[in-house]
Amino acid sequence: MTAGGEVLDRRRAGLLLHPTSLPGPGPCGRLGPDAYWFVDFLRDAGFGLWQTLPLGPTHDGGSPYQCLSVHAGNPRLVSRALLVQWGWLAGITPEAAETGGDDALEAAREGFEAHADAAARAEYESFRAENAHWLEDYALFQSLRDAHHGQAWTQWPRGQRDRTPKALARVRRELADAVERVRFVQFVFRRQWRLLRAYANERGILLLGDLPIFVSHDSAEVWAHREYFSLDEHGRPLTVAGVPPDYFSATGQLWGNPHYRWDVMEADGFRWWVERVAAQRELFDLIRIDHFRGFEAYWEVAADAPNAMQGRWVKAPGAALFETLRARLGTHLPLVAEDLGLITPEVDALRERFGFPGMKVLQFAFDGDPDNPYLPHRHESNAVVYTGTHDNNTTCGWFDELPEDRRHAVRDYLAHPSEPMPWPLIRAALASVARLAVVPLQDVLALDATHRMNRPGTAEGNWRWRFGWDWFPQDIAQRMRHLIHLYGRAPATP
To answer: Catalytic residue numbers?
Structure first.
């Protein structure tokens, strides 16, 4: 059996879409009616898996890979329409409620306190008790951050920054109502996600989540657990994460996340990581670990460096970490390794030691080298194949931007298909021996480069993409179901 447990036991097809990209009347997609309709589309089209990006609360840039917490859910994803259905948001239609902001969530809290039944109140108390190990720190962190108009925690008054008992006791009293508001919103998010996951699972749809290896510096976890991070006495990073020059950037990528103090984490049995992975298992059936190579060795850059070119590789205790996770959480960890970028034999050995499926991205395959590991004839069964990821161009955009000789090479490898892109690449993904094939929704809808989710190395215009239901060709579910069945990825019959 694979490390992915029951998830990669047979061939499946998945669709990549972050919930913020769902349509609807609000400023971003939410976990309401459109999310349920999307699950229905997945079922009708023959997909067996929905892959998302991280679900945490984001900074102003909107990147789900730079979150204010590794445990909390993004309040923007909370469906106000469902709060109306639950009877906690009265005097407004579901459609109008979805355009509401934080005022709608506050009104829902008041409605909950006034009208929730005993079962819902008991559910809330259980949520608070079971998640207190992160919820209390996050609720206070977010309340303080709001009180300081979004300032990073290193800019707060020293007592709050350094979490002195006297300062924390005072702000807990002063911000008690704000803290309770944050707790309630997290309860609502978790409840809505749990119901959506159950709806998907009942229809044969598994959920694949995404766990970034690194943590945003301005986050509840760094503020509350400074001992685990490489920081100076003022809480500022000493070194930060990134990658050297790569496919996406000639000067590398400078992410800015503080590095871990792995020696401290290992000394207490990796407790922080055990809690983090265990929490993700409560949300998802399978978890993609972003930047897996950082568990073997990570790229360390001085915090004041202008780019990521001048850094160094530092060994990480990945084997010890995964041994601990396996001992604490079970032999078959439901993890997928995002093993893209500069991958060494040591990184491959770490992944293979624990049996984690790796990733094969078809857009990286056609460089003219017949031994390119992303070419379909080089794939292995314990893998996840993608046409492209959230960081890639759409397949139509990618193909259109290739020089003519490269386009010819792609057509030649794919046997000069008569279908236009992206369908030949979608077929190649579905035909791969990899047990799981994942296609971004942009490719299923044959969208061009203007529909990219993210452009690595750029700070503006990312993470905002949304689709419309009227973009779906009338026969698209039938077409995908035919292809998924043709290549042996149809859902198991009951």
So the answer is: 290, 338, 391
